[in-house]
Design a protein that fits this description.
By secondary structure, this protein is of the alpha+beta class. The protein has a domain of 67 residues. It is built from 1 helix and 5 strands; from the N terminus they run βαββββ. The longest helix has 19 residues.
Amino acid sequence: MAAFETDSLSNIPKGMEGLTVNPAEYAVFTFCINDRSPIGDQFSTVYQGIWGNWLPNSEYTYAKTPDFEIYDHRFDGNSCTGEVDIWIPIEKKITN
């Protein structure tokens, strides 16, 4: 879902949906997209690192709330280069 932040969900345009993202704990991964390799390859590498390495080796599990990417002033939509933040909802692993 492509989204933007709003102060109210009371006047959603036709054909769009509103979603409230409740406060949660997130791991935030910032990475820089360059123009030297396809953007999809770069995302694939980062997500493989998060899901295949960082998360299983951390003290956290995936919290079942929305995860998202943020493209702000640090990202150039024309050249598809710059910084992107990936927000993954997490919670501490329960240990016995």
